[in-house]
Amino acid sequence: MKNKKKEKKRKKIFTFGLGKERDDFLENISMLISGGVPIFEAIESIKEGSRSKDMKKLLDYMREDIEDGLPIWKSFSKTNLFPDHVISLVRLGEESGKLNENIKIAAIGQEKNRALQSKIYSAMMYPAFVLFLTVFVGLGIAWLILPRLTTTFAQMRMDLPLITEILIEIGNFLGSYGHYFIPSFLVFLVILVFVLFYLPKTKFIGQAVLFIIPGVGKLVKELEIARFGHLLGTLLGAGVSIRQAMFLLSRSTASLRYKRLYKHLENCIGEGDTFKKSFSSFKGADKLMSRPIQQLIFVGEKSGSLSEVLLDIGRKFEEKTDNTTKNLTVILEPLMLVIVSLGVAFVAIAIILPIYSLIGGMDARQQVVQEIATPVEEVPFEETEVETGKIRGLDVDPENLIVYSEPSYGSEMVGQIMPGEEAEYIEKENGWYKILLLEDETGWISGSYIEVVNDEEQ
Fold first, then answer.
1. Is the pTM higher than 0.85?
2. Are 134 and 343 in contact, with CB atoms under 8 Å apart?
3. Domain range holding 363?
């Protein structure tokens, strides 16, 4: 009755965020017990060094349970702080008199598991940061700057490139609905991440996406095999039965694909099947556990050294994950830079193209205005001058270098010369030059758009 009253008064403590405290506890209590410190004093000593209030309360509950005669493994289990395989190791150690050794094994296992998880976080941290920064800056520019640019472009009253029109539509949309769309989009991203990677019923979708991504899928597979080898080898070495070890392994993994594989192995081994038969009866086993790994497990099972073989597999794949993590970072960095560059290039091109068009249109309008504003001088009638020489087309619009049948703009067009092209003229009349064309044809061109070639230039 006394225990029940205490349990009712106990406040429920959420263990989320106490992973580091938990691992430190296992490591410290192993060292203290091996040094001959009684379990009660060891727990009290660890409590004094803990900074977390929640962890201190859990240690108080743990010490109270042990003082009331509860087995150590049960007091550990009631805290909901330790995974099932740690509880099993503590229970076996307590029952066999090897508590210190098994707690030490559990501490090493938790440290390795944390190291494997940190490899994934370190590999994904840089691309995730770059992607977040890109989305954040991109949305800020789109929301605050694009609407102003679109207003400027809309006032130009000129034909705009398609890419600029797309940018204008985006700017208009964000200008009108940005204060609704941007916050909603950010909330949507948070919900999407939660649904894909944290919601129990749908996180298999996010895991499937990770398996598809080149490099990431390979890293996830290697990390899971490393955990499989180390944890299963440790449990078997501590005296846990194969079926119980497979049960604990399936409970400890977060990957739904590997969880199904481990449950299948647990059921098959429970019915007396070998690992070879169990793997062959699972569809897609070769994708989760490669053939060479399976062969090593088969050999270890036959030779009676399965625990040592599994631990060796765990060590080898820990080394592989180090190389894969480095290579993945090298691959993802340029990929993220390309994505960022494409976004910047899209906005830059959409802005620069209409500016170039605007400058070109202003030059053309200025030239037309100058031509209209320039008074046309009346050229007095002059008699035809019989004169020969060479002319050269000026660097102007080719439409101004048209050759006419008569010395007037209203006559028929008979040819054209290009800017910089030279031709021989045989007559000059009222500012017009009669030039020789191909096949002995002649025509007149205005002197406003040509220059006479001096004898020295010839």
1. no
2. yes
3. 120-375
